[in-house]
């Protein structure tokens, strides 16, 4: 092909030169003249024998003129100035601008179907479950069952949402904690050996009840110091009174009376210091009076309950040697609990001090309790963009346990308005978000993200993401959730 093209070009150039010479345009001594007009078809010279074969002929690969466009070949050689036709194998010229991707091709890619589940691939929850985490309330993906037989196997039933009274606001997550104002760490204030531990784990105790008994030399020394100070006080008081009477009768010098009075004051101070030491060791006024009356300096040290409560932790064993500050027991008043709320920063205006809250528990479906916010954190966490709030909650019959999770709805201005409600068992949690399944056809369902509110009477409020006329799966939703997430254990259609 290339050799034939070169031969044709040489022949055409020779014929053109003869034609120009015959017409007087080109002189032998003047050198080559300008080329023929670009685009003209070379017909040769009629009176030139050398051009008889080319007269009236036009070849596809005519190269007479330097600027003349030649017909592009299938394997574009990128001729200078040439405009080749688009070919499948053509890589284009270096000067050609890059061609943009076809919008139709992009649209075709987006609408690519999942052959296994017969839904658009981008909407197939079975093949792409990771996309569920990015859905917002009202958005969803498709789940198609393998056959209608799965409906009976999974026990799927559907119903429309019902209307009910709203409890208000947006639900936030919270965790139950002990009331820190009614929590005590019971420690030993003296070193010694544990003689007895009357308090049992989980036992309810009253304020002042003995929790533990410790034999301590330090306690014996403290009692002896107090008794000695009391005896010295009594003695110094008697001396001062006698010297005072003698001074009044002019029998002794007034200076001796003043000295006796000073010693009596020092004795009183010593008694006060010894008494305070006993109080610091956990003695009550009654205990101090008992020591004074019995005049006994025993080594027994009694640890008593500071308030009514329940023993929630015990780390004391009879015969164990303990040091000052050793934790023996923990006592908590379980009649009230704290609720630690994790609140998004966009609810700053909704959660305030004295805000009323409605609390529901997944672990206690039949239990719903009111509470009141008493503290709001003054800073937002940098990593979570949330702030903490604390609410006080009554704990009837001790049902609430520290560490339990709860759903809290902050009651606001919308309290009492109408809202959609569905059975709480219809809501499934995936990647920290709430989802329901909406029936589209007999074997096709949509897993849809929703905003779930407060729970009441085994139903849950839906503030966003659901319409009143839609059919929601109220039984068998867990089976559909398992179907949607089964590809996490294997490959979906996108991995084929």
TL;DR of this structure?
The protein is an alpha+beta fold. The protein folds into four domains: 1-85, no CATH class; 117-166 and 416-489, conserved putative lor/sdh protein from methanococcus maripaludis s2 fold, CATH 2.40.420.20; 170-179 and 333-413, Elongation Factor Tu (Ef-tu), domain 3; 183-332, OB fold (Dihydrolipoamide Acetyltransferase, E2P). It contains seven helices and 25 strands.
Please explain how this structure is put together.
The radius of gyration is 49 Å and the shape is elongated. The strands form six sheets. Strands 3, 5, 20, 21, 22, 23 and 24 form a seven-stranded antiparallel beta sheet that branches. A six-stranded antiparallel β-barrel has the order 6-15-18-17-16-19. A four-stranded antiparallel beta sheet has the order 7-14-12-9, with no helix packed on it. It is built from seven helices and 25 strands. It starts with a helix and ends in a 12-residue tail after the last helix. It folds into four domains: 1-85, no CATH class; 117-166 and 416-489, conserved putative lor/sdh protein from methanococcus maripaludis s2 fold (Beta Barrel); 170-179 and 333-413, Elongation Factor Tu (Ef-tu), domain 3, CATH 2.40.30; 183-332, OB fold (Dihydrolipoamide Acetyltransferase, E2P) (Beta Barrel). The protein has 496 residues and is an alpha+beta fold. Residues 17-23, 25-96 and 491-496 have low confidence and may be disordered.
């Amino acid at each position: 092909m290339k050799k034939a093209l070169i031969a044709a070009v040489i022949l055409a150039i020779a014929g053109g030169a003869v034609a120009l010479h015959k017409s007087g345009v080109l002189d032998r001594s003047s050198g080559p003249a300008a080329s023929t007009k670009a685009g003209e078809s070379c017909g040769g010279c009629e009176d030139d024998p050398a051009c008889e074969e080319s007269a009236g002929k036009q070849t596809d690969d005519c190269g007479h003129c330097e600027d003349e466009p030649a017909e592009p070949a299938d394997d574009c050689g990128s001729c200078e100035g040439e405009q080749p036709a688009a070919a499948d194998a053509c890589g284009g010229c270096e000067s050609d601008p890059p061609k943009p991707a076809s919008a139709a091709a992009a649209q075709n890619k987006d609408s690519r179907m999942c052959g296994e589940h017969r839904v658009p691939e981008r909407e197939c929850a079975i093949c792409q479950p990771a996309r569920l985490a990015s859905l917002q309330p009202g958005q969803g993906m498709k789940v198609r069952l393998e056959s209608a037989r799965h409906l009976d196997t999974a026990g799927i039933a559907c119903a429309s949402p019902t209307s009910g009274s709203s409890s208000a606001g947006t639900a936030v997550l919270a965790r139950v904690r002990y009331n820190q104002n009614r929590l005590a760490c019971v420690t030993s204030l003296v070193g010694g050996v544990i003689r007895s531990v009357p308090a049992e784990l989980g036992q309810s105790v009253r304020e002042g009840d003995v929790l533990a008994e410790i034999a301590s030399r330090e306690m014996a020394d403290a009692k002896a110091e107090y008794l000695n100070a009391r005896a010295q006080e009594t003695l110094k008081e008697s001396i001062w009174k006698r010297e005072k009477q003698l001074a009044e009768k002019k029998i002794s010098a007034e200076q001796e009376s003043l000295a006796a009075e000073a010693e009596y004051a020092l004795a009183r101070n010593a008694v006060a210091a010894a008494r305070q030491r006993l109080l610091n060791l956990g003695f009550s006024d009654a205990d101090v009076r008992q020591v004074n009356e019995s005049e006994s300096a025993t080594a027994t040290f009694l640890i008593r309950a500071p308030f009514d409560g329940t023993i929630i932790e015990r780390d004391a064993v009879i015969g164990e040697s303990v040091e000052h500050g050793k934790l023996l027991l923990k006592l908590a008043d379980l009649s009230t609990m704290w609720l630690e709320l994790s609140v998004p920063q966009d609810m700053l205006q909704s959660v305030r001090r004295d805000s009323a809250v409605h609390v529901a528990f997944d672990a206690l479906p039949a239990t719903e309790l009111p509470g009141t916010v008493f503290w709001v954190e003054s800073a937002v966490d940098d990593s979570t963009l949330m702030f903490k709030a604390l609410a006080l909650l009554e704990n009837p019959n001790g049902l609430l346990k520290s560490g339990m999770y709860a759903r809290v709805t902050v009651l606001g201005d919308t309290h009492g308005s109408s809202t959609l409600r569905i059975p709480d068992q219809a809501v499934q949690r995936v990647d920290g978000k709430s989802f329901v399944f909406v029936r589209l056809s007999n074997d096709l369902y949509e897993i849809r993200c929703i905003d779930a509110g407060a729970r009441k009477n085994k139903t849950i409020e839906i503030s966003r993401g659901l319409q009143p006329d839609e059919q929601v799966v109220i039984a068998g939703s867990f089976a559909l959730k398992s179907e949607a997430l089964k590809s996490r254990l294997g490959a979906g259609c996108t991995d084929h």
